[in-house]
Write a structure and sequence with these properties.
301 residues, mainly alpha, 12 helices
């Protein structure tokens, strides 16, 4: 009985530690999921409940984003609602014009910065959802491997370094951004379902290669993580009913999520500022080091 309590206490400590790591790395282009999966292996934490623990930690980070950027997100949400209402209105006008033969003008759907940002986010989520769902099972297998995260870190480093050396980035803001670029960025986010491949790194690099300015590229990458994280949560929520899940473990997951949220609120502005201002090559060097160490330990142990 005492041994079981000791194991439970260690899991709580481990998850608190992982929550802090998640909060710090989520908004840097260095793969928070890769860090979590590698550390979990050395801590002896398995994936009997799928990727639920990682998803809960990411959900805490999502709560931090919503809290700190609530004004912008509210405007984006209202913009999306306005676009939907205008589409309904245009449909009614179309039916009216067909019936009466009149030529009443239609409302312009995408107007202003926040509506355009909302439209870009919706389009980016299409490939993200498709790739995320199809790669879910492979991602779970990869989470128990050191080779896949190690390779993922190296790929992230290469993408970051190439983007940096190419001096990618332009002057495009939401008004100038094209919808096909949002699709490509969404594809990059979908690929990042695998541990070691940085979601922030891949989407940021893709945005810069598409000519986005650095500030908008970072904010767009942060905002587009929200529907991806929430969607991942709903695909993993069924694991709360797994045979390995206990009430204590479920409570621990929720507690770790809260810790990740609080820690995210404390560091998110600083980590986003780092991502906006520090050269990507330094994140690339870090990813190379972590990837090489991970692969070396895999073959050495």
């Amino acid at each position: 009985m005492e041994k079981q309590k000791g194991i439970s206490s260690m899991i709580v400590v481990y998850l608190i530690f992982l929550a802090v790591i998640q909060a710090v790395t989520e908004f840097l282009p260095v793969s928070s999921l890769g860090h979590l999966c590698i550390l979990e292996q050395y801590m002896g934490i398995g994936h009997e409940t799928g990727l639920l623990s990682e998803t809960m930690l990411h959900l805490g980070s999502a709560a931090a984003i919503i809290f700190l950027f609530r004004k912008d997100l509210k405007k984006i949400g209202l913009g999306l609602l306005g676009m939907f209402m205008d589409m309904i209105g245009n449909l009614n006008l179309y039916i009216h014009n067909k019936k009466t033969g009149e030529s009443l003008g239609y409302a312009r759907i995408v107007t202003g910065t926040y509506r355009k940002t909302g439209a870009l986010l919706v389009i980016s989520m299409i490939p993200t959802a498709l790739l995320g769902l199809t790669g879910k099972r492979l991602a779970l297998l990869a989470a128990d491997s050191q080779i896949v995260p190690g390779i993922g870190f190296l790929l992230t480093g290469v993408f970051l370094l190439v983007t940096d050396l190419n001096k990618s980035g332009g002057k495009k803001g939401p008004r100038e951004a094209s919808y096909d670029s949002a699709m490509w960025i969404g594809i990059c986010q979908g690929i990042a379902v695998f541990p070691g491949i940085s979601r922030m790194g891949f989407t940021l690099c893709a945005a810069l290669l598409c000519g986005y300015n650095r500030k908008f590229a970072v904010r767009f990458s942060v905002f587009m993580s929200l529907p991806a994280i929430i969607g991942a949560f709903f695909t993993e929520i069924g694991n709360f009913g797994a045979s390995e899940m206990t009430a204590g473990l479920g409570f621990t997951y929720v507690f770790a999520m809260i810790i990740a949220g609080f820690a995210g609120c404390l560091v998110i502005r600083n980590t986003i500022a780092m991502t906006q201002n520090i050269k990507l090559r330094y994140f690339a060097y870090y990813s190379f080091i972590v990837g090489i160490i991970t692969l070396a330990l895999n073959f050495a142990l």
